[in-house]
Amino acid sequence: MIIFFDDRPFKIVRTNKLTVSETAYFDNIVDLRLVKLQKSILTGHVLFLNATAATALQVIGHLEKEMPADLLSITMATREKSEVEEKIKNNYKVIKAAGGVVIKDGKWLFMYRRKKWDLPKGKLDKGENSKVAAVREIEEETGVKAIIRDRICTTWHTYSFNNNRILKRTKWYVLDNLDDSQMSPQAEEQIEKLSWLNNTEAKSILINSFSSIRYVVDSLKKMQNVEEI
């Protein structure tokens, strides 16, 4: 599970899934059985070992109270992954959404909205499943008709709305373009423009995007064995 707090990734992983090469990536490695959680620890890329549901919620409390300026990411390694994830979800109102990456002739469809490059996505309608929602939202926001090829990943991110703590789950899919003859940005959603971009072109625009969108793109590249862009 990966949650984005103010665009910072917060990953929950099983302890036995961590590799030596992955642990070398972290600036701080903290064993929560030995060290008391302090705000000063939350700098750079942080790995917490022996995490529990209680310590995960404690860390989240720190992030929601005041996001540390120097924090880049948090990974919590636990033997109780399912329990930790469930406890986190229970502290929020969960909203479900879906979206995707449409591909045409090796190019990927991106949109420019609210001064950032993004991918089409939106909330599920009542009784709607994620696949149907992804196709519908893509057509509504871009005018492009597409068909799902495969699932990419799932992301979560938090925000507040009407004094509610929201955790939005978005399922992401890769789709093939069927018809882009009516392609047009949806003005009501503040989408300014749409672009079909190859890997090289995407590299520059993703600088001005969100960590969650870069995560989706990276996940799709790994699926397709695409070289780094």
Summarize the structure.
The chain is α/β, with parallel strands linked by helices. Helices cover 26% and strands 41% of the residues.
Q: Residue ranges: pLDDT <50 for 5 or more in a row?
A: none
What's the CATH architecture of the largest domain? Alpha-Beta Complex
End-to-end Cα distance, whole Å, is 25 Å
Structural class by sheet pairing and helices? alpha/beta
Characterize the overall form: globular
Name the CATH superfamily classification of the largest domain. Answer: Nucleoside Triphosphate Pyrophosphohydrolase
Q: What composes the largest sheet? A: 12 strands, mixed
Count of alpha and pi helical runs: 6
Briefly note the CATH topology name of the largest domain.
Nucleoside Triphosphate Pyrophosphohydrolase
Task: Break the fold down into its secondary structure elements and pairings.
Blueprint: E1 2-5, E2 8-14, H1 20-23, E3 28-31, E4 44-49, H2 53-65, E5 71-78, H3 81-89, E6 93-104, E7 107-113, E8 116-118, E9 121-123, H4 130-142, E10 145-161, E11 164-179, E12 191-197, H5 199-205, H6 211-224
Parallel strand pairs: 1-10, 2-5, 3-4, 4-5, 6-11
Antiparallel strand pairs: 1-2, 6-7, 6-9, 7-8, 7-12, 10-11
Helix pairs in contact: 2-3
Task: Give short descriptive properties of this protein.
globular, alpha/beta, Nucleoside Triphosphate Pyrophosphohydrolase, 229 residues
Question: How does this structure look, described?
Answer:
The protein is α/β, with parallel strands linked by helices and 229 residues long. The protein folds into two domains: 2-89, no CATH class; 95-224, Alpha-Beta Complex (Nucleoside Triphosphate Pyrophosphohydrolase), CATH 3.90.79. Helices cover 26% and strands 41% of the residues. The chain is built from six helices and twelve strands. Strands 1, 2, 3, 4, 5, 6, 7, 8, 9, 10, 11 and 12 form a twelve-stranded mixed sheet that branches. Strand 1 and strand 2 (8-14) form a beta hairpin. The longest helix is centred in the C-terminal third of the chain and has 14 residues, at 211-224. It is globular and about 60 Å long. The protein starts with a strand and ends in a 5-residue tail after the last helix. The mean pLDDT is 93.
